[in-house]
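Q: Predict the bound structure with fe (ii) ion.
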Amino acid sequence: MIAVTDRTSAALPEPVRIALAQKVAGGKLELPVLPEVATRVVQLCNDEGADPRELAVVIRRDQAMAAHLMRLANSSLYAPITPLVSLDQVVSRLGMKKVREIALIISCQSKVFAVPGHEARLKVLFRHSLGAAAFAQEIARSRRWNVEEAFLAGLLHDLGRPVLIQAIVDLCRTEGLCPTETAMDVACDILHTRVGAELVKAWNLPVRLSEAVLWHHDPERSESARNLTMTTALADDLSHLVFGPKRLDEAAMRSHPLCAPLNMYPDEMESLLAKRDAIQKQVEALA
Ligand SMILES: [Fe+2]
Ligand SMILES: [Fe+2]
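A: Predicted complex:
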């Protein structure tokens, strides 16, 4: 049995706590399936020899995804200089990695951050994730690191939380019990990194992303993706500053312990903080 069960016992009803711990420890938690079209998009992005034109063909098979993708590609998040009017244009102007990014935003919003009865809570979580994605992208840009990878690490870092909320709701229903919000928060705080990393692996995304998700609260434990994990951790705190609940205030962000290992100078942190309003607008336009 995993050690975290002792802490969850303070909050979740015992039968739910035991069943949840067993499911997580045994890898038996039901993980959301990536929509077929998004799975294919991820496969194509993993294939170095893939033809970008095939991406548009694949997406066109799912009309709802295609329409949503067109909307997002034209949103302030991607801010095309001239409107993108076709899928072929989206693929050729934004590139395969950005298309994967948009397909994952759509899939996360519709398939993972969607627990009936908990919409308001999930909306806050989704905004936090998009905020972390946008900040991670800016941090990576300032370090001249891979911006698409950083965006995805931010987007996916707390993916375990909605999965756990759904699992707790289901287990409580089976037991005829009702979880408190605090109970769910405690369980999510303890288990979400592990569950999120499993989901990222199950979706066949690069291993560096699951590593960043697994260690985003403990970046020094990351062995093979330390910079990406530190980027995600800093972006997480920046997103909390903008979208709440606040963990560190602005002054504390200026002396954040990750600034030194990320080799980030005070003026670079100022530039990040100056992007707050723009990022807030981008995120609120999407969620
Ligand atoms: Fe987290
Ligand atoms: Fe977070």
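A: The pocket of fe (ii) ion (ligand 2) is lined by residues 128, 132, 157-158, 236 (CB under 6 Å).
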